[in-house]
Amino acid sequence: MTRFASFPGNGSVLNEIIGSAVYLEESTGLELFLPFSIDLAIHEGGSLKSYLTNRRTLIPPHQLATLEKIALARRSIYEIVASTSRSLTLRDIGTNETVSALIDSGGYEIGQTVLCRITDFEGDPIVLGSVSTLKKLDIEYLLPLTAKGLTVDDLLLWFHAIRPLAGIKSHGGDPLIACKASLFFSRPFRPFP
Fold this sequence. Notes:
Layout: H1 2-6, H2 14-19, H3 27-42, H4 47-55, H5 61-72, E1 75-83, E2 87-92, E3 98-102, E4 113-121, E5 124-134, H6 136-146, H7 152-166
Antiparallel strand pairs: 1-2, 1-4, 2-3, 4-5
Helix pairs in contact: 6-7
């Protein structure tokens, strides 16, 4: 699928997605972005749907059914509520539903919040593609968007603009909090006298 997603004629936006990262100079930024960008191109970018459209007659029926399920899976925000060596029990923050999904659970802790996609695979829920650990500011930005379905633009804006802000702390060590300010003037505001 990754190879199919990398060819421009296959309805992929992978080149544009990777092109959005030209300023990521730190190797850790690129190490996180490359798996995320491929996952983004395959799912939200439309490569998987294009693959299913173009190759439907060549795909064996049992594989086609699995790929169609995967194509319907949407990213959501989950809190990790339990962990074993092979699975995580996750609570969807938007719907409050709980699911135990197969994943290599190394590196995840109970109480962490993650952005991921889960689908049923031969009777077992599995976590698909990239998994991103979230902070409070990430959740505030992404949660309202998950209800309508995250787009490539939503996720690129989050990855490049919002996500870096989530790591910023005040001089006192407190995390940055998203705020909305409204100004009301007693008389009409005129910027130039």
